[in-house]
């Protein structure tokens, strides 16, 4: 798993991490991780549109902090 593969998949890695962290007592985290990894591997390749993402972030920051 390299950074390129992780960033360009239609998969929510943060949510997968949270699923592992908050797994209740009695849930086998290794088995949960195996399932999440299989989902990651089968997720569609989806290159990120960095220009669009940065423009969206800029608009949100302007709403929150105002223009500079």
Describe the structure.
With 68 residues, the protein is mostly helical. The chain has one domain (3-65). 65% of the residues lie in helices and 0% in strands. The protein has helices spanning 3-7, 13-21, 29-42, 50-65. The longest helix is centred in the C-terminal third of the chain and has 16 residues, at 50-65. The model has no long low-confidence stretch (mean pLDDT 93).
Summarize the SSE layout with pairings.
Blueprint: H1 3-7, H2 13-21, H3 29-42, H4 50-65
Helix pairs in contact: 2-3
Number of helices: 4
Gap between N and C termini, in Å? 39 Å
Tell me about the largest β-sheet: none
Strand content: under 5%
Structural class: mainly alpha
Global shape: flat
Number of strands: 0
Q: What is the gyration radius calculated from CA atoms?
A: 16 Å
Order of helices and strands: HHHH
Any idea how many domains?
Answer: 1
